[in-house]
Amino acid sequence: MTPAVKSLKRAGVDFELRHYDLDDHHASLGEYVAARLGLAPQQVFKTLVVSVEGRRQPVVAIVPVTETLDLKALAGHFGARRATMAERHAAERATGYRPGGISPLGQRLALAQLLDDSAAAFERIHVSGGRAGIELTLATEDLVRLTGARMVALAARD
Question: Which residues form the YbaK/aminoacyl-tRNA synthetase-associated domain (predicted)?
Fold first, then answer.
C-alpha cells in the first residue's frame, strides 16, 4: 500500500484503485495508462514536480496527460518569472515517490500544489497511486481538499 492510498483511507475518501501492467513500448505513460484502463485521457492527470525561481521547495503541477505544462504560467501563479522541471532526485526527495509514479497524495513534504482548471469539468479524475502500475480515481473536490491544490490554468493551450 502506497502513502497515497493510505492517505485516502485515513481521510475516509471514496476512491477506486486500479492496476495496470507496464509496457516499455509507449511514448506517453499517461496516455498509455488511459488506453490500458479504458479511461478518457483528458480525465487522467499527471503529477509534475517543478522548481520555481525564488522558492526553496519545489511545487506540484497536476495537468491532463494530453496537455503540456505551461511553465511560464505556473511561475506567474507564484509571482516568479521562471520555472523549470525539478531534477529527478529533487522530485523524489520532496515527494517520496519515484518519477513515473509520483502521486499528488501522501507526499513526504507538504508542497504547494496547483491543479489545471480543466479538472473542474469532471466530477472524478484519475491520478497516480504512488507507483507505476497503480492509478487512483477520486472526486475532483476530494483531491483539491486533501492536497490544498489551487485550481488554475496550467496547460499550454494554443
Answer: 31-146
Say if residue 121 is exposed, middle or buried (CB neighbours under 10 Å; 0-12, 13-18, 19+).
exposed
Which strand ranges, in their side-by-side order, compose the sheet holding 124-128? 15-19, 134-139, 124-128
For residues 108 and 110, give the distance between their C-alpha atoms in angstroms, rounded to a whole number: 7
Structural domains in the chain, CATH included, are: 15-67+101-158 (3.90.960.10)
Instruction: Find where cell 511553465 sits.
Output: 71
Distance CA 46, CA 125 (A): 11
Write the pLDDT tens digit of every residue in 70-85. Answer: 999 999 999 999 999 9
Supply the mean pLDDT for the chain: 92
Distance CA 84, CA 128 (A): 21
Grid coordinates 496547483 are at which residue? 114
